[in-house]
Amino acid sequence: MDSIKILICLTTLLFMFTYAQAATLPESPPTILTPTPAPAPAPEYVNLADLLSVAGPFSTFLKYLESTKVIETLQNQANNTEEGITLFVPKDKAFSSLKKPSLSNLTADQLKQLCLFHALPHYYSLSDFKNLSGEGPINTLAGGSYTLNFTDDSGTVRIGSGWTNTVVSSSVHSTDPVAIYQVNKVLLPEAIFGTDIPTPAPAPAPVPDIAPVADSPDADGGKGSAAKASSPSSSHRISWWSVWRCLMVVVVSGGFVVVL
Ligand SMILES: *[C@@H]1O[C@H](CO)[C@@H](O)[C@H](O)[C@H]1NC(C)=O
Ligand SMILES: *[C@@H]1O[C@H](CO)[C@@H](O)[C@H](O)[C@H]1NC(C)=O
Ligand SMILES: *[C@@H]1O[C@H](CO)[C@@H](O)[C@H](O)[C@H]1NC(C)=O
Ligand SMILES: *[C@@H]1O[C@H](CO)[C@@H](O)[C@H](O)[C@H]1NC(C)=O
Predict the structure, then answer these.
(1) Which residues of the chain form beta strands (DSSP E)?
(2) What is the reported pTM?
(3) What are the two backbone dihedrals, phi and then psi, of residue 177, each rounded to the nearest 5 degrees?
(4) What residues form DSSP beta bridges with 89?
Protein backbone atom coordinates (compact mmCIF):
# COMPACT_ATOMS: atom_id res chain seq x y z
CA MET A 1 0.00 0.00 0.00
CA ASP A 2 2.78 2.38 0.99
CA SER A 3 4.75 1.51 -2.10
CA ILE A 4 1.72 2.41 -4.26
CA LYS A 5 1.41 5.78 -2.48
CA ILE A 6 5.10 6.46 -3.05
CA LEU A 7 4.72 5.45 -6.66
CA ILE A 8 1.70 7.77 -7.13
CA CYS A 9 3.53 10.57 -5.37
CA LEU A 10 6.63 10.12 -7.52
CA THR A 11 4.55 9.88 -10.71
CA THR A 12 2.69 13.06 -9.75
CA LEU A 13 5.92 14.88 -9.02
CA LEU A 14 7.44 13.70 -12.27
CA PHE A 15 4.30 14.73 -14.12
CA MET A 16 4.27 18.16 -12.48
CA PHE A 17 7.95 18.65 -13.20
CA THR A 18 7.49 17.67 -16.86
CA TYR A 19 4.37 19.81 -17.11
CA ALA A 20 6.08 22.80 -15.52
CA GLN A 21 8.96 22.49 -18.00
CA ALA A 22 6.58 22.02 -20.89
CA ALA A 23 4.51 25.01 -19.75
CA THR A 24 7.38 27.42 -19.21
CA LEU A 25 9.71 26.53 -22.05
CA PRO A 26 7.47 26.87 -25.12
CA GLU A 27 5.63 29.82 -23.65
CA SER A 28 8.56 32.19 -23.18
CA PRO A 29 10.22 31.95 -26.64
CA PRO A 30 7.09 33.02 -28.64
CA THR A 31 6.70 36.28 -26.70
CA ILE A 32 10.35 37.06 -27.31
CA LEU A 33 10.42 35.92 -30.92
CA THR A 34 7.34 37.88 -32.04
CA PRO A 35 9.29 41.01 -33.14
CA THR A 36 11.52 38.89 -35.43
CA PRO A 37 8.99 37.76 -38.10
CA ALA A 38 7.75 41.35 -38.60
CA PRO A 39 10.52 42.74 -40.92
CA ALA A 40 9.87 40.29 -43.76
CA PRO A 41 6.84 41.61 -45.67
CA ALA A 42 6.09 40.36 -49.15
CA PRO A 43 6.33 42.94 -51.98
CA GLU A 44 2.94 44.42 -52.66
CA TYR A 45 1.19 46.25 -55.45
CA VAL A 46 2.10 49.92 -55.24
CA ASN A 47 -0.33 52.55 -56.46
CA LEU A 48 2.08 55.27 -57.62
CA ALA A 49 -0.44 58.13 -57.62
CA ASP A 50 -1.63 57.28 -54.11
CA LEU A 51 1.93 57.00 -52.85
CA LEU A 52 3.03 60.30 -54.40
CA SER A 53 -0.03 62.10 -53.06
CA VAL A 54 0.78 61.17 -49.45
CA ALA A 55 4.60 61.34 -49.63
CA GLY A 56 6.52 64.44 -50.50
CA PRO A 57 5.10 67.25 -51.15
CA PHE A 58 5.18 66.06 -54.76
CA SER A 59 1.86 67.53 -55.89
CA THR A 60 3.32 69.55 -58.80
CA PHE A 61 5.07 66.54 -60.30
CA LEU A 62 1.98 64.37 -59.73
CA LYS A 63 -0.15 67.01 -61.47
CA TYR A 64 2.16 66.85 -64.52
CA LEU A 65 2.14 63.03 -64.47
CA GLU A 66 -1.65 63.04 -64.44
CA SER A 67 -2.21 65.79 -67.03
CA THR A 68 0.16 64.05 -69.48
CA LYS A 69 -1.25 60.60 -68.58
CA VAL A 70 2.35 59.48 -68.01
CA ILE A 71 1.16 58.15 -64.65
CA GLU A 72 -0.56 55.31 -66.55
CA THR A 73 2.64 54.43 -68.41
CA LEU A 74 4.56 54.37 -65.13
CA GLN A 75 1.91 52.30 -63.34
CA ASN A 76 1.87 49.87 -66.24
CA GLN A 77 5.66 49.56 -66.07
CA ALA A 78 5.39 48.88 -62.31
CA ASN A 79 2.51 46.39 -62.67
CA ASN A 80 3.30 44.43 -65.75
CA THR A 81 7.04 44.15 -66.30
CA GLU A 82 9.74 41.96 -64.85
CA GLU A 83 12.11 44.92 -64.98
CA GLY A 84 10.17 47.16 -62.64
CA ILE A 85 10.69 50.90 -62.40
CA THR A 86 12.85 53.57 -60.77
CA LEU A 87 11.27 56.99 -60.46
CA PHE A 88 12.95 60.28 -59.50
CA VAL A 89 10.48 62.72 -58.00
CA PRO A 90 11.33 66.41 -57.60
CA LYS A 91 9.83 68.19 -54.63
CA ASP A 92 7.29 70.98 -55.22
CA LYS A 93 10.03 73.42 -54.21
CA ALA A 94 12.15 72.20 -57.14
CA PHE A 95 9.42 73.31 -59.57
CA SER A 96 8.72 76.62 -57.85
CA SER A 97 12.41 77.54 -57.77
CA LEU A 98 12.93 76.61 -61.44
CA LYS A 99 13.36 79.98 -63.18
CA LYS A 100 15.69 79.89 -66.17
CA PRO A 101 14.48 77.17 -68.53
CA SER A 102 10.77 77.52 -67.91
CA LEU A 103 8.37 74.62 -68.31
CA SER A 104 5.53 77.01 -69.14
CA ASN A 105 6.00 77.07 -72.92
CA LEU A 106 6.72 73.40 -73.45
CA THR A 107 4.43 71.59 -75.86
CA ALA A 108 2.24 68.77 -74.56
CA ASP A 109 4.61 66.25 -76.08
CA GLN A 110 7.71 67.87 -74.55
CA LEU A 111 6.03 67.88 -71.15
CA LYS A 112 5.25 64.20 -71.54
CA GLN A 113 8.87 63.47 -72.46
CA LEU A 114 10.06 65.53 -69.50
CA CYS A 115 7.95 63.38 -67.17
CA LEU A 116 9.17 60.11 -68.73
CA PHE A 117 12.73 61.43 -68.41
CA HIS A 118 12.33 61.04 -64.62
CA ALA A 119 11.87 57.26 -64.85
CA LEU A 120 14.20 54.33 -65.59
CA PRO A 121 12.75 51.13 -67.05
CA HIS A 122 14.31 48.98 -64.32
CA TYR A 123 14.20 48.68 -60.53
CA TYR A 124 17.41 49.93 -58.92
CA SER A 125 18.07 49.81 -55.20
CA LEU A 126 20.29 52.62 -53.92
CA SER A 127 23.31 50.29 -53.84
CA ASP A 128 22.71 49.28 -57.48
CA PHE A 129 23.75 52.80 -58.51
CA LYS A 130 27.36 51.85 -57.74
CA ASN A 131 27.09 49.69 -60.83
CA LEU A 132 25.71 52.48 -62.99
CA SER A 133 28.42 54.83 -61.82
CA GLY A 134 30.59 55.88 -64.73
CA GLU A 135 28.77 53.55 -67.12
CA GLY A 136 27.89 56.52 -69.30
CA PRO A 137 24.42 57.55 -70.43
CA ILE A 138 21.57 55.41 -69.03
CA ASN A 139 18.31 55.23 -70.96
CA THR A 140 15.18 56.64 -69.37
CA LEU A 141 11.57 55.79 -70.23
CA ALA A 142 11.58 58.80 -72.58
CA GLY A 143 13.87 56.76 -74.87
CA GLY A 144 16.20 58.03 -77.58
CA SER A 145 18.70 60.64 -76.49
CA TYR A 146 16.88 61.24 -73.18
CA THR A 147 19.63 59.79 -71.03
CA LEU A 148 20.94 60.38 -67.51
CA ASN A 149 24.42 59.94 -66.07
CA PHE A 150 24.86 58.46 -62.59
CA THR A 151 27.78 58.67 -60.22
CA ASP A 152 28.06 56.99 -56.85
CA ASP A 153 29.90 59.37 -54.54
CA SER A 154 30.57 57.22 -51.45
CA GLY A 155 26.92 56.34 -51.05
CA THR A 156 25.49 59.57 -52.45
CA VAL A 157 23.86 59.03 -55.83
CA ARG A 158 24.57 61.94 -58.18
CA ILE A 159 22.41 62.47 -61.25
CA GLY A 160 23.53 64.48 -64.25
CA SER A 161 21.52 65.54 -67.28
CA GLY A 162 23.76 68.30 -68.61
CA TRP A 163 21.32 70.98 -67.46
CA THR A 164 20.80 69.46 -64.07
CA ASN A 165 23.22 68.14 -61.50
CA THR A 166 21.53 66.89 -58.39
CA VAL A 167 21.52 64.05 -55.89
CA VAL A 168 19.06 61.50 -54.56
CA SER A 169 18.15 63.24 -51.31
CA SER A 170 15.81 60.62 -49.89
CA SER A 171 14.37 57.20 -50.60
CA VAL A 172 10.57 57.38 -50.68
CA HIS A 173 9.98 53.73 -51.54
CA SER A 174 12.34 50.94 -52.55
CA THR A 175 10.97 47.44 -52.79
CA ASP A 176 11.42 45.49 -56.01
CA PRO A 177 9.80 46.21 -58.48
CA VAL A 178 9.22 49.87 -57.49
CA ALA A 179 11.85 52.41 -56.44
CA ILE A 180 10.93 56.05 -55.82
CA TYR A 181 13.66 58.53 -54.93
CA GLN A 182 13.32 62.18 -54.04
CA VAL A 183 15.52 64.62 -55.95
CA ASN A 184 16.10 68.29 -55.20
CA LYS A 185 15.82 69.50 -58.78
CA VAL A 186 13.68 68.99 -61.86
CA LEU A 187 15.68 66.88 -64.34
CA LEU A 188 16.00 68.87 -67.56
CA PRO A 189 16.92 66.92 -70.72
CA GLU A 190 19.26 68.30 -73.40
CA ALA A 191 16.89 66.68 -75.90
CA ILE A 192 14.35 69.43 -75.04
CA PHE A 193 16.41 72.38 -73.86
CA GLY A 194 19.38 71.94 -76.19
CA THR A 195 23.06 71.56 -75.52
CA ASP A 196 23.65 75.30 -75.26
CA ILE A 197 23.82 75.11 -71.50
CA PRO A 198 24.59 78.41 -69.78
CA THR A 199 28.03 78.21 -68.15
CA PRO A 200 27.69 77.67 -64.42
CA ALA A 201 27.83 81.29 -63.27
CA PRO A 202 26.24 80.31 -59.94
CA ALA A 203 29.47 79.00 -58.40
CA PRO A 204 27.85 78.17 -55.04
CA ALA A 205 25.48 75.78 -56.84
CA PRO A 206 27.63 72.65 -56.33
CA VAL A 207 27.89 73.30 -52.60
CA PRO A 208 24.23 72.64 -51.72
CA ASP A 209 24.38 69.55 -53.91
CA ILE A 210 27.29 67.98 -52.04
CA ALA A 211 25.44 68.43 -48.79
CA PRO A 212 21.79 67.67 -49.60
CA VAL A 213 20.76 68.86 -46.13
CA ALA A 214 21.90 72.38 -46.90
CA ASP A 215 19.84 72.49 -50.09
CA SER A 216 16.53 72.77 -48.27
CA PRO A 217 16.70 73.45 -44.57
CA ASP A 218 12.89 73.58 -44.36
CA ALA A 219 11.75 70.96 -46.84
CA ASP A 220 14.17 68.22 -45.90
CA GLY A 221 11.79 66.53 -43.51
CA GLY A 222 11.64 63.54 -45.86
CA LYS A 223 15.32 62.84 -45.61
CA GLY A 224 15.46 63.40 -41.88
CA SER A 225 12.50 61.18 -41.13
CA ALA A 226 13.75 58.48 -43.51
CA ALA A 227 17.11 58.43 -41.77
CA LYS A 228 15.51 58.43 -38.34
CA ALA A 229 12.98 55.78 -39.28
CA SER A 230 15.67 53.21 -40.01
CA SER A 231 17.83 53.65 -36.94
CA PRO A 232 15.23 53.06 -34.18
CA SER A 233 14.07 49.85 -35.83
CA SER A 234 17.60 48.45 -35.97
CA SER A 235 18.38 49.48 -32.40
CA HIS A 236 15.01 48.00 -31.43
CA ARG A 237 16.02 44.75 -33.08
CA ILE A 238 19.40 44.84 -31.35
CA SER A 239 17.81 45.36 -27.94
CA TRP A 240 15.35 42.48 -28.49
CA TRP A 241 18.23 40.31 -29.57
CA SER A 242 20.19 41.06 -26.39
CA VAL A 243 17.10 40.42 -24.21
CA TRP A 244 16.61 37.12 -25.99
CA ARG A 245 20.26 36.14 -25.50
CA CYS A 246 20.12 37.13 -21.84
CA LEU A 247 16.98 35.03 -21.28
CA MET A 248 18.54 32.05 -23.04
CA VAL A 249 21.49 32.24 -20.64
CA VAL A 250 19.09 32.32 -17.67
CA VAL A 251 17.04 29.37 -18.98
CA VAL A 252 20.11 27.28 -19.77
CA SER A 253 21.80 27.94 -16.43
CA GLY A 254 18.46 27.37 -14.63
CA GLY A 255 18.16 24.00 -16.33
CA PHE A 256 21.65 23.20 -15.22
CA VAL A 257 20.81 23.96 -11.59
CA VAL A 258 17.64 21.79 -11.78
CA VAL A 259 19.64 18.90 -13.25
CA LEU A 260 22.31 19.20 -10.57
C1 LIG B 1 -2.13 47.86 -61.76
O2 LIG B 1 -2.58 46.85 -60.87
C3 LIG B 1 -3.70 47.25 -60.07
C4 LIG B 1 -3.97 46.13 -59.07
O5 LIG B 1 -3.87 44.87 -59.66
C6 LIG B 1 -4.88 47.56 -60.96
O7 LIG B 1 -5.96 47.98 -60.16
C8 LIG B 1 -4.48 48.67 -61.94
O9 LIG B 1 -5.55 48.92 -62.84
C10 LIG B 1 -3.25 48.27 -62.72
N11 LIG B 1 -2.86 49.40 -63.54
C12 LIG B 1 -2.21 49.26 -64.71
C13 LIG B 1 -1.93 50.51 -65.47
O14 LIG B 1 -1.86 48.19 -65.15
C1 LIG C 1 9.98 79.33 -74.65
O2 LIG C 1 9.74 80.64 -75.10
C3 LIG C 1 10.93 81.40 -75.24
C4 LIG C 1 10.56 82.80 -75.58
O5 LIG C 1 9.26 82.92 -76.00
C6 LIG C 1 11.81 80.77 -76.30
O7 LIG C 1 13.00 81.50 -76.45
C8 LIG C 1 12.14 79.35 -75.92
O9 LIG C 1 12.84 78.71 -76.94
C10 LIG C 1 10.86 78.59 -75.64
N11 LIG C 1 11.21 77.27 -75.13
C12 LIG C 1 10.76 76.16 -75.64
C13 LIG C 1 11.24 74.91 -75.01
O14 LIG C 1 9.97 76.13 -76.57
C1 LIG D 1 27.08 44.92 -61.44
O2 LIG D 1 28.02 44.84 -62.50
C3 LIG D 1 28.66 43.61 -62.62
C4 LIG D 1 29.71 43.71 -63.71
O5 LIG D 1 29.30 44.54 -64.75
C6 LIG D 1 27.60 42.54 -62.91
O7 LIG D 1 28.22 41.27 -63.02
C8 LIG D 1 26.58 42.51 -61.79
O9 LIG D 1 25.57 41.58 -62.08
C10 LIG D 1 25.98 43.88 -61.61
N11 LIG D 1 25.12 43.89 -60.47
C12 LIG D 1 23.89 44.43 -60.50
C13 LIG D 1 23.13 44.38 -59.21
O14 LIG D 1 23.43 44.93 -61.51
C1 LIG E 1 27.48 61.41 -69.55
O2 LIG E 1 28.71 60.70 -69.48
C3 LIG E 1 29.38 60.63 -70.74
C4 LIG E 1 30.64 59.83 -70.53
O5 LIG E 1 30.40 58.67 -69.83
C6 LIG E 1 29.69 62.02 -71.24
O7 LIG E 1 30.28 61.93 -72.51
C8 LIG E 1 28.43 62.83 -71.33
O9 LIG E 1 28.72 64.17 -71.69
C10 LIG E 1 27.68 62.83 -70.04
N11 LIG E 1 26.42 63.47 -70.22
C12 LIG E 1 25.95 64.38 -69.39
C13 LIG E 1 24.63 64.94 -69.75
O14 LIG E 1 26.53 64.70 -68.38
Answers:
(1) 85-90, 119-120, 138-139, 147-153, 156-160, 165-175, 178-183
(2) 0.65
(3) -100, 15
(4) 182
